[in-house]
């Protein structure tokens, strides 16, 4: 190949070729230079130059010598941008939407930010596939009823990241509906609910909003400089707010099952301690409602005894009687 032919090859579609090369290297295997050259339709010399370009951009590409040597992308100091094919993008979007929509334990604000970024750049054909899969799937919920539309979470997360004011309708616990304009600060997951911590412009004070009660949120386009939280931390502000609005319960429950079995079936903030080979005891302080706590205890699917609080024991007794009455007597 002549000098000018090599120069022309090197200048033609370099950005697209680099992206294709990076996509190949993100597959967990080692690529011989000859195979990369054949795949991309360029000379081995151009592949070596492109590898150097990727290294200059911060991608840690490792080379091994020898007859079976080649190139592979290794872990570096920072997370490089990922290139996903259609199937991978759809799988990640569906998984994140399913988790975010039902506030499953472990799905934190970072996951919602990732979902917001992914859905922002998804091509329309992939958006349609994600929506089709989502609509055709019935998730197994866990009894708390606090479902959230993933589109609501991504809208809120994007506004938090961009420091952009939000407008939305809000339904309070007593059913009162209001219109709000806020400066969103953080999304916080408690394990079974999502909350938005924000500064309410009309009320001139910090507020926490249950995201499952937020309706039709949209970013106004107006940017703001984040204010300093009075507590210094969004989770602390949420805990302070909920402790004022909801009574706190001292839970004391024993289970006829191992701590490992029970822990896997309860939220992270309700962790029992083992008391024997097949028993455990939960002692914790909670602001969750007795109705929700009763349902979660029933879903553990083992024998249990409520020692306290009295309100929870009374509700479990009432619920058990109601469920018993709901079963029609067998025909004689």
Notes on the protein architecture:
By secondary structure, the chain is α+β, with helices and mostly antiparallel strands. The chain folds into three domains: 3-73, Winged helix-like DNA-binding domain superfamily/Winged helix DNA-binding domain (Arc Repressor Mutant, subunit A); 84-231, no CATH class; 249-325. The chain has helices at 3-11, 14-25, 33-40, 44-56, 86-101, 109-121, 124-135, 150-162, 234-245, 259-263, 290-299, 310-325, and strands at residues 61-63, 71-73, 164-171, 177-189, 194-200, 205-210, 214-223, 249-255, 273-276, 279-286, 304-308. The strands form three sheets. Strands 6-5-4-3-7 form a five-stranded antiparallel β-sheet. A four-stranded antiparallel β-sheet has the order 9-10-8-11. A hairpin with a 4-residue loop joins strand 5 (194-200) and strand 6 (205-210). Helix 3 crosses helix 4 (44-56), helix 5 (86-101) packs across helix 6 and helix 11 crosses helix 12 (310-325). The longest helix has 16 residues, at 86-101. The protein is extended, with a radius of gyration of 27 Å. The N and C termini lie far apart (94 Å). 24% of the residues are buried. The model is unreliable at 1-12 and 137-144 (pLDDT under 50).
Task: Jot down its keywords.
single chain; alpha+beta; Arc Repressor Mutant, subunit A; 3 domains; 42% helix; 22% strand; disordered N terminus
What's the helical proportion of residues?
40-55%
Strand order, largest beta sheet: 6-5-4-3-7
Given the helix and strand composition, which structural class is it?
A: alpha+beta
User: Could you list the spans in which at least 5 consecutive residues all have pLDDT below 50?
Assistant: 1-12, 137-144
**Compute the gyration radius: what is it?**
27 Å
Number of strands: 11
Mean pLDDT over the residues: 76
Strand content: 15-25%
The SSE order reads: HHHHEEHHHHEEEEEHEHEEHEH
Q: How many structural domains can be distinguished in the coordinates?
A: 3
**How far from one another are the termini?**
94 Å
Coarse shape: extended
- Largest pleated sheet: 5 strands, antiparallel
């Amino acid at each position: 190949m002549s000098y000018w032919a090599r120069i022309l090859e090197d200048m033609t579609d370099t950005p697209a070729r680099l992206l294709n090369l990076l996509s190949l290297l993100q597959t967990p295997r080692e690529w011989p230079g000859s195979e990369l050259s054949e795949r991309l339709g360029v000379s081995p010399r151009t592949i070596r130059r492109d590898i150097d370009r990727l290294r200059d951009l911060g991608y840690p590409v490792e080379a091994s010598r020898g007859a079976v040597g080649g190139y592979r992308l290794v872990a570096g100091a920072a997370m490089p941008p990922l290139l996903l094919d259609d199937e991978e993008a759809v799988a990640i979007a569906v998984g994140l939407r399913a988790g975010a929509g039902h506030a499953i334990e472990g799905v934190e604000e970072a996951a919602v930010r990732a979902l917001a970024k992914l859905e922002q750049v998804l091509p329309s054909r992939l958006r349609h596939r994600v929506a089709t899969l989502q609509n055709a799937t019935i998730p197994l919920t866990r009894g708390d009823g606090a479902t959230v539309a993933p589109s609501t979470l991504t809208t809120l997360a994007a506004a938090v990241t961009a420091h952009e004011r939000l407008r939305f309708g809000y339904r309070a616990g007593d059913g009162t509906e209001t219109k709000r304009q806020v400066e969103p600060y953080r999304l916080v997951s408690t394990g079974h609910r999502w909350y938005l911590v924000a500064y309410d412009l009309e009320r001139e004070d910090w507020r926490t909003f249950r995201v499952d009660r937020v309706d039709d949120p949209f970013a106004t386009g107006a940017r703001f400089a984040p204010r300093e939280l009075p507590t210094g931390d969004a989770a602390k502000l949420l805990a302070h707010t909920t402790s004022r609005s909801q009574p706190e319960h001292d839970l004391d429950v024993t289970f006829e099952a191992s701590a490992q079995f029970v822990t896997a079936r309860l939220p992270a903030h309700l962790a029992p301690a083992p008391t024997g080979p097949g028993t455990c005891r939960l002692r914790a302080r909670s602001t969750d409602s007795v109705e929700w706590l009763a349902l979660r205890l029933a879903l553990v699917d083992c024998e249990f005894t409520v020692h306290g609080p009295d309100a929870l024991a009374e509700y479990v007794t009432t619920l058990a009687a109601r469920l018993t009455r709901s079963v029609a007597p067998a025909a004689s």
